[in-house]
Each structure stands twice: as C-alpha cells, then as structure tokens.
Amino acid sequence: MDIIMSIDIKSTNEIIKIRKSCKIASEVLTMIENYIEPGISTEKLNKICHEYIVKKKHAFPASLGYCGFPKSVCISINDVVCHGIPNKKIILKDGDILNIDVAVIKDEYYGDTSKMFFVKDVKKEAIDLCKSTQKSLYLAIKKIHPGMRLRKIGSIIQKYIESKNYSIVREYCGHGIGKCFHEEPQILHYDAYDKEIKLKPGMIFTIEPMVNIGSKNVYTGKDGWTVKTKDKSLSAQYEHTILITNYGCEVMTLREEELLLKQ
C-alpha cells in the first residue's frame, strides 16, 4: 500500500479520545516530577506512574507488555538514549539527567509524551543539552501548518541541533498514533526524503528528537531494549503528540509549565 494512502486522518470523535489519552500522559509527567530525587530507584518511579495511570486515571500504560517490554514507562538515564527498563537496582544520584517516556491507552486510543528531568545539581553541559533538545522540538512545532512537507520537521530540528554541535540519533523516529501505538507516517528528526508527504488536518503523530552531546552512534544492550550512546556521552529527548489543524497544529500533550508553546 502507498504510504500516503495509509496515513490515517482522524475523525472528530477520534481526536476527542486521543486528546484525553494525551492529557493523561502529560499529567503523569507533571505528577512524577515531585518524586525525582537522589536515592529513589527507577523501579519505584515506574510503580508510582503505573498506579497513577491505572488507579487515578483509569487508563492503561501502553508500554507494559508492548512487544514484550516489561514495565509501564521507559526511564533513560544519562547515556541511555531511549527504552531504559526501570529496575530496583538503578538508583538516581545527584547530577543525573533522565527521560521518562509515558504512553497510555484510554478508551482504545493512545497518547504519548516524554521529557527530561534533573536530579538535584546537574552540570551546565547537561542542562544546555536538554534545553537545546527541547528548543529543537519547539522550533519545529511552531513552523507546522497544513500543506507543509513532512521533511521540513526534521530539517528544522537538524539545522538547530547541528548549530549547537550536537548530534541527532538516526535509528529512532516519531510516529503516527491513534488506535494503534505506532502508525504511519514516520517522523525523522533530520532532513531526509519524505515520499513527498504533505501535512493534512487530522493527522496525528509524535515528534521526539533524541540528541547526543557526542557522536550520533548508538547500540542496544543485552536486554534487547536499552539503547545507549556508543561513546558514553549524554543523551536527551523530548516528545509531544501533535494534531495538524486547519491553521497550524495542536500540541495534544502540552503541559501547564510550557508557556513557550502558548505564545
């Protein structure tokens, strides 16, 4: 099937349901912030997120059991790029940076988002990496409009990130989302051929740049999930779920503290 034909345009009813799932996912990230401190294990953070999603929001953590993933959220620390598995032996320490990636299912529809957290006193180079990664996402979002070529998203991110002398991970990308966790189209975070896809109202997808302070090269650990930088350099990621509207886009996973995107 032609990839353009396989991109799902969501109905009004579907958008309402996805918006609910996205709101829950964003609320998990806001909630868990208060628990980020030295001495807590990533397994404990996972448990807190799981109970919040299931018991308070009456939803389901989409990562749990997905292709065999054993936990409810992904937690990736320092040189872990993505898909970090929470573990009671992994303890946060002063100076760590970590990404928590939350995806939920509510009424059969998905929402997906992630952000970086700082553990107490974090070095300036780590803070700068995270801020630049988040800004690259914001820059792309602010330019989105119907009729725009898909590749422009990656082009904007790449231009900014490389101007900061960071590198973009190429092996992982954003994705369409709706009644399935991962749908077409794939959203690359660098300038690449996009099969001439143009953005249309009703498209919903994630943008989730993964940026390394050193080389772009990564590898997957023995557990089959944990992705790390080959040179052990720090990595950062931010993710939002985006709806293309008639005039621009809606950030469906927007958190209250993100005033920049509301301007």
TrEMBL record:
Its cofactor is Co(2+); Zn(2+); Mn(2+); Fe(2+). One of its GO terms (biological process) is proteolysis. It catalyses: Release of N-terminal amino acids, preferentially methionine, from peptides and arylamides. PROSITE patterns: MAP_1. Residues 17-246 form the Peptidase M24 domain. Keywords: Aminopeptidase, Hydrolase, Metal-binding, Protease. SUPFAM superfamilies: Creatinase/aminopeptidase. A divalent metal cation 2 binds at residues 112, 175, 208, 239. InterPro entries: Creatinase/aminopeptidase-like (IPR036005), Pept_M24 (IPR000994), Pept_M24_MAP (IPR001714), Pept_M24A_MAP1 (IPR002467). It comes from the Bacteria. GO terms for cellular component: cytosol. The keyword Cytoplasm does not apply. Its EC number is 3.4.11.18. It is an enzyme of class 3 (hydrolase). Transmembrane segments: none annotated. A divalent metal cation 1 binds at residues 101, 112, 239. GO terms for molecular function: initiator methionyl aminopeptidase activity; metal ion binding; metalloaminopeptidase activity. Belongs to the peptidase M24A family. Methionine aminopeptidase type 1 subfamily. Removes the N-terminal methionine from nascent proteins. The N-terminal methionine is often cleaved when the second residue in the primary sequence is small and uncharged (Met-Ala-, Cys, Gly, Pro, Ser, Thr, or Val). Requires deformylation of the N(alpha)-formylated initiator methionine before it can be hydrolyzed. HAMAP family: MetAP_1 (MF_01974). Monomer. This is Methionine aminopeptidase. It comes from Wigglesworthia glossinidia brevipalpis. The lineage of its organism: Bacteria, Pseudomonadati, Pseudomonadota, Gammaproteobacteria, Enterobacterales.
